[in-house]
Amino acid sequence: MSRKNFTIPVFIPELACPHQCLFCNQQKISGVQKSPSEKEILKIVNGHLQTIPSGSKIELGFFGGNFTGIPQNDQKRYLKLVQPYLKQGKISAIRCSTRPDYINEEILEILQNYGVKTIELGAQSMDEKVLQKSGRGHTVEDTIRASEMIKAFGFNLGLQMMIGLPSDTKEKSIDTTKKIINFGANNTRIYPTLVIKNTKLADLYQSGHYTPLSLDEAIEWSAKLIKLFENAGVTILRVGLHPSEGLIDGTDLIAGPFHPSFRELVYTEIWREKLMAIKTDQDAIEIKVNPKELNYAIGYHAKNKLLLKEKFKTVKFVTTNSLKRREFKVC
Length: 331
Fold this sequence. Notes:
The chain is α/β, with parallel strands linked by helices. The chain has helices at 26-30, 38-51, 72-81, 83-87, 105-113, 128-133, 140-152, 170-182, 200-206, 215-231, 245-248, 262-275, 294-298, 303-308; strands at 5-11, 57-63, 93-98, 116-124, 156-163, 187-192, 195-196, 235-239, 253-255, 284-289, 314-319, 328-330.
């Protein structure tokens, strides 16, 4: 049996970030208002370790902003703090997220020396106009350069992307996906753009100069991109923002395609496309799927099963380990 993978998230926002991305209010998105103290980090790590099943593969991730953008002494201090967990085998590796323009050889050598195995870059888009309109402060070339350096140093490369940014289109997002694949990314995250309070994007939205994707559009785009990533063997770590308290209760969210079960909605859509192509003269059908795909095949709130029942008198889903992911057999 394969070991389950877990990541212990430690959020360290870059409070003095010089870039003014239109969509960003990192404290609201992550739910973290200030950088945690060393004592708080140890409490976070130990708390997670107590709940993770033994025998699991555990990474520690420094998220919440641009880890390599904080002062170098602070980077080393945080990395030194968690070294005992690496040496004791309580965690297997460290990962961090940062910006494409915050990567150089000196930084990579520091990360390598402290056991970092994966570096995730907030690429967001591979379209220059989208990056410029979003106030990212870096170029596509910065992402290419950083990706090449990260791979050359032997790190696993993560490239995060956003959909629905200003000037974005479905075609541009598909192109971004293809370039992320071509750059050799090992993993990715897909984030639909949300309008968060106290951001420049909120001002654009309220003045009528920006329209976010609808939930249906975000689901459709994401389903298309996920299939491209999966066919290329790129691991998808997350689809949609983590539902922090401010997003769930709406206090921080102004507009945009947020749903606490966004990933399930997208996977439901992928299965809907497959299942709606079923052609048979039978009144009753039995659909066999891999156990891990059962909930997605049935669909969020049984959406796909209900659609099938409009065509067939009886619809039954059963599981079998003989089928691979997204394979199905109709009996």
